[in-house]
């Protein structure tokens, strides 16, 4: 099965597949770390050059990759995406899989969940000083609050 070229394409198609078959579709992730192989440069028998190449190869950190697969066994549809970019891996895991989970749970996308009616109310802070109130009002208005500087003694 071919891989998608962009994560957005994979995400859009996965959402459609999950919306069509939420009970049978599965999402799997596979993360692997592989040692970077160095390509030896052909030199004219210079032993010092080969030693530095070996040291440079050993200094390279291993490279990780993630493969995300959306699979529906009933229809036989498989959607795959692979990347080695660390920033994209975290974005895929936190935001994309969350969006797919919402679709799988039949929750509307982009809607904020309402608080539970049985939940206790949020605690109110007991701070009632004038400085705290001014600071809150100043930050709400977009301005900065100026304070007096303390002098040295």
Automatic annotation (TrEMBL):
Higher taxonomy: Eukaryota, Fungi, Dikarya, Ascomycota, Pezizomycotina
Stretches for region Disordered: 38-62, 109-153
Domain of life: Eukaryota
Biased composition annotated in UniProt, kind: Low complexity: 46-59, 134-144
InterPro entries, A to Z: SRP9-like, SRP9_dom
Protein name in the entry: SRP9 domain-containing protein
Residue ranges of domain SRP9 in the record: 4-104
One BP term from GO: SRP-dependent cotranslational protein targeting to membrane
């Amino acid at each position: 099965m071919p891989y998608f070229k962009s994560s957005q394409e994979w995400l859009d198609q996965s959402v459609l597949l999950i919306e069509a078959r939420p009970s049978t579709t599965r999402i799997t992730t596979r993360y692997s770390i592989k040692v970077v192989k160095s390509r030896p440069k052909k030199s004219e028998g210079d032993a010092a050059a080969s030693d530095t190449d070996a040291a440079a190869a050993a200094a390279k950190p291993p490279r990780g990759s993630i493969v995300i697969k959306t699979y529906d066994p009933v229809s036989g549809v498989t959607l795959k995406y692979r990347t080695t970019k660390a920033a994209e891996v975290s974005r895929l895991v936190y935001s994309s899989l969350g969006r797919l989970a919402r679709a799988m749970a039949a929750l509307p996308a982009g809607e904020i969940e309402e608080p539970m009616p049985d939940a206790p109310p949020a605690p109110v802070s007991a701070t009632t000083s004038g400085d705290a109130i001014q600071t809150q009002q100043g930050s709400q208005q977009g301005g900065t609050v100026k304070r007096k500087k303390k002098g040295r003694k």
